[in-house]
Amino acid sequence: xxxxxxxxxxxxxxxxxxxxxxxxxxxxxxxxxxxxxxxxxxxxxxxxxxxxxxxxxxxxxxxxxxxxxxxxxxxxxxxxxxxxxxxxxxxxxxxxxxxxxxxxxxxxxxxxxxxxxxxxxxxxxxxxxxxxxxxxxxxxxxxxxxxxxxxxxxxxxxxxxxxxxxxxxxxxxxxxxxxxxxxxxxxxxxxxxxxxxxxxxxxxxxxxxxxxxxxxxxxxxxxxxxxxxxxxxxxxxxxxxxxxxxxxxxxxxxxxxxxxxxxxxxxxxxxxxxxxxxxxxxxxxxxxxxxxxxxxxxxxxxxxxxxxxxxxxxxxxxxxxxxxxxxxxxxxxxxxxxxxxx
Length: 342
What we know:
The protein has helices at residues 3-22, 25-35, 48-54, 62-79, 85-103, 130-145, 150-184, 237-243, 247-256, 313-321; strands at 191-196, 203-209, 213-220, 230-234, 260-265, 268-273, 285-292, 295-303. By secondary structure, the protein is of the alpha+beta class.
């Protein structure tokens, strides 16, 4: 999740555990601990793909954060002994361990069990979701004005947690809705990812991929009986096979679960993470190889600039979320004319 959300969650948990003893300083301590795992972004691992896939790595591992929580609890206890060690440990443990667990609900991928196993991505909540964050921020503000405000903190944490549970239920409902349409389109055996559209769990995006093509569906809870619109995007399996053995490509395939699109741009071969962003505005595209006389040579990866987003995209997205329009073409981030498809 975004940094503001992690600060709010950390501050809320610290206030719940130690607000009566530490007062307003609990907010500051909790907020700082809540951002600690994300400090790995300052590390340069040597290439764009390495930086992309190592983020949320060791610093988000439960095996690393558990002993760090013990160490920090001891240090904080020595600093402020009015809170006993067990409560300091409860505070640091809750904050440090809930940070990566919350991140795992997003699409990016969180290596909860580093160095064992792959990244975990549940895909049920967008990286920024006001419906999750605002109850936490409101409870922290109430605590700031009238500490220790245990009831307000409890309400904020409860509402946010229930909302997180709702995202899982909503994801399953949408999955059941799109599965028959994908089967009818010949994509029954395709890899499927269902995730919310930006900033909401009312509207969802389903992405199904096989070697030859990718099918995208946008559907939501305000669509009623509106038939699903399927958008098809071709894939290049020959190009994918040509670069499949390159180390950084293997790393990307592992990290994204194979949700990649390969393309050529002049002599450059690019790999795009199609999980994040939207078609035409995917933020993570990497140059991974160079074409030379029909052969492909691996490169130290670099990342291409984030593509510009259609100026009307936010308005189009809002119209689709609220049910004012029933079709949103992902390829153009636009609404088609009446009677036309994508």
